[in-house]
Amino acid sequence: MTLLVTGGAGFIGSHFILEWLNRHHEAIINLDALSYAGNLANLAPLQQDTRHHFVHGDIRDRELVTRLLTEYQPRALVHFAAQTHVDRSIDGPAAFIQTNIDGTYALLEACRHYWRELPEAQAAGFRFLHISTDEVYGSLAPTADAATETHPYQPSSPYSASKAASDHLVMSWHRTYGLPVLMSHCSNNYGPRQFPEKLIPLFISKALAGQPLPLYGNGLQQRDWLHVADHCAALRLLLAHGAPGERYNIGSGTETSNLEIALTLCALLDQRRPRADGRPYAEQIQHVADRPGHDTRYALDTGKIRRQLGWQASTVLAEGLSATVDWSLQHPEWSAHDNADAAIAWRQARP
Ligand code: NAD
User: Is 2-190+226-252+299-314+337-349 a domain of CATH 3.40.50.720?
Assistant: First the structure.
């Protein structure tokens, strides 16, 4: 039994692989292009583990994907690979169209041809698990109900629009060709080893470097933050028990503003690593011009996965943030990269 994972050298994919191999003996083929956000150091504990096969390649390379499917005969494909940072999608949308839309299309076509040749029992068990996001639902009004899986798609950024487009392709491959797909819509993830362009690692690293913490607009944008381990647990349940053709929201069910996140991180750093001048880190928070098209509120109704699969988030945000700050302090090689450009240079320089 084998899983084919795409984007497994990134933040969530690497957590998924490490946690999967802690629990299962099933091999994993990990196809990743090692973009700026992919890093094999994320998978260092697996260096000697023969159950993990890393393949350096692009999901748009249909020939390669077809070869991997034929050679390894996976029982499922778990699709994390994507361009994921909203700010980058505003600066340069092309890569988002290419990876998120064209790449997903290439995977769907390769899987469709592989799947339809499988013996009946294997074909019935095959799954294409597509990792989507709550951002496809767009911004919710302050008093609106949390989005269920039937909420209309209203993406705001090139990132969320490219994810929405890939979601539509995935669902159409189910309806038209019968491909047994599953789709997850997860909220903002956090935890160790997140690339330092995302809010939480960015603020921790900038705070420690004595730099301003750039908070978009008034900082009151509401997000549902989920620890990455909770996300991975939900994905394992979906693979085991999710119904083909169904979508599942995954979130913690708590809404927190970006300002609250920033203040919490600052307070944790005040306790753990007080500034040399004794001043609070919160003084470094600096409101900057808002991101164009910035969504003000995401909120997910996770009743479906809780009722049908018995999943619920187990990490309380305060504890998860505290552990993430501790991890960052213990890994200065990670948080020393005080902005995305430095982080990119560091990643590209790795052996
Ligand atoms: P990430 O940016 O950390 O990692 C993405 C990985 O995909 C990297 O390893 C990168 O090298 C790889 N990749 C990029 N383009 C590729 C290509 N063309 N071919 C092969 N590999 C390629 O992303 P992440 O935060 O781990 O997110 C993983 C998935 O989860 C994405 O699909 C994202 O949309 C979704 N998601 C993320 C969050 C979040 O908060 N991070 C929330 C909900 C959903």
Answer: yes
